[in-house]
Design a protein that fits this description.
This protein is of the alpha+beta class. The chain folds into 2 domains: 77 residues, Four Helix Bundle (Hemerythrin (Met), subunit A), CATH 1.20.120.910; 42 residues, no CATH class. It contains 4 helices and 4 strands, in the order H-H-H-H-E-E-E-E.
Length: 146
Amino acid sequence: MVAVEFGFLQRQLEERKQRLETAVASAPGNSGLADLLREVDSALDRMAEGTYGLCLECHDTVEQDRLLADPLVRYCLDHLTQLQRAALQRDLDLACQVQRNLLPQKGLRVGGWETSYHFEPIGAVSGDYCDLIQSDGQLLFLLGDV
């Protein structure tokens, strides 16, 4: 893993640990918070041991984008349980739906301009963004790519 990302994730986990310790102290009966604190401690331990970012099943590298999205991830995509795969698919489906709902309306007409676009992400969700915004009789075109 790139050193900058590793350092970023370590700082994020240490900050999360501090917030969780405060929360557990103020709500000692909340087992969910205590469980989450144990997961954060485990991730920090793996960082100290040099095994962070390695799949616990096959010991291959866990996908970096998944670690950045959830630094507590312990398994690569190939070794997710059926429940984990189903949850991931639900998340992807929801993200796809949200992204498509953010697209501008088809056939928008403003000040003599007629608009048209074609959006085709490479996967279920992409880092691409486009929007058409009407403002004072003008049409603003926004385009983004992550």
